[in-house]
């Protein structure tokens, strides 16, 4: 079983969000839904910020005044903000999830369309499991980023900026104290977050390694069993699973440490604010409602800063996944139809002329499989190619089908250089019966009909009877 290079080593680890922004171009066709989602997001963030003023109203006018009517009015205001928050969150969640799923579906379709058009040489250099990983795990990560992470990042940014503004309005003195203590909270979280981001990326890569190894072994299961290689493959698979487990455990440990540190520093800072603010309340420089509002905004800002640290890691992971998907979208096939293909002669005669053909596979360009080959096959003539393994028999058929282009010489079909014809037109002229036929995961009807979508059931039955 041929082992291909470990594509995991080539996976990009990016600190650049531009690949993610490029894939977000898929959102352009849904601009009105994006606008509605952003509007709902702004309303939800505004409702959260309004809670601080609601608390101040409840304490200062509802409780302190001793008026039941004032308390009722304050609680009705609270209920109104809750209803506005609930409605906006519901709308935001639905629209963003819809957009996330829609973008992923569009990206998957675009990537799959591109992959189907790539040349055979690309799949010799790239593991099938690696391509599958990009179409599944990378697009799934992109769905989370578009449907959730981006919204959290924008909402948290709004809460931080709005919270700091409300802090300054409530008490400039306490705001200065909070801002002075902010680096003590942010720096440890940022350092831990950086390590968590690296381990998250490593964990994603190890999981992709597991999937790629499974794909490789199961595709070569006959070779595995014929060589009695099961024990070694079980051991190699366990090694990869354990590597993924170890990375995930380290990531979880650091994530837990970051969460604990965030709670410790955040509520420690709240305690300091309460003590200083309490002194001002006792001195009559600050009301109880203002202190309640200030503590609410301080907790909101501190927790939002911690969330931004975590979200930044998720956004960078999404950017890394986007970069891998963009690589496929921008991959150019080495073999393609010419810009202005020539029509193949009609009706087809079947004349094949091979003139001084020379070819080496892209994976091993220094070793010529065919060299100076010249051959003419007349219409209706039957030719048998005989030779040892590796002599170039299968290679010649692959060149006829233009899976590859020869480095020297020409192949003409009915007098036309096959490189001047459209790939679809050329391949439609040929029929190949492989030694090991591929059976697709469908019923016999569809497998017989494969490549002839317009074939009716009676035609399928006649073909089956003839076979």
Provide structural commentary.
The protein has 13 helices and four strands. It has helices at 18-23, 31-63, 68-116, 120-125, 128-170, 172-219, 221-226, 230-282, 288-329, 393-400, 423-428, 444-449, 457-466, and strands spanning 352-359, 370-377, 408-413, 416-417. The protein is elongated, with a radius of gyration of 32 Å. Helix 2 (31-63) runs antiparallel to helix 9 (288-329), helix 5 packs antiparallel against helix 6 and helix 5 runs antiparallel to helix 9. The protein is 68% helix and 5% strand. With 467 residues, the protein is mainly alpha-helical. Mean pLDDT is 79; it is low at 1-14. The protein has a four-stranded antiparallel sheet with strand order 2-1-3-4, covered by helices on one side.
Q: What is the H/E order?
A: HHHHHHHHHEEHEEHHH
The count of DSSP E runs of length 2 or more, i.e. the number of strands, is 4
- Category by helix and strand content: mainly alpha
Number of helices: 13
Helix content: 55-70%
Shape: elongated
Which stretches are low in confidence, meaning pLDDT under 50 for 5 or more residues running? 1-14
- Mean pLDDT figure: 79
**Radius of gyration from the alpha-carbon trace, in angstroms:** 32 Å
Major sheet: size, sense and barrel closure? 4 strands, antiparallel
Quote the distance from N terminus to C terminus. Answer: 32 Å
The portion of residues forming beta strands comes to: 5-15%
Strand order of the largest sheet: 2-1-3-4
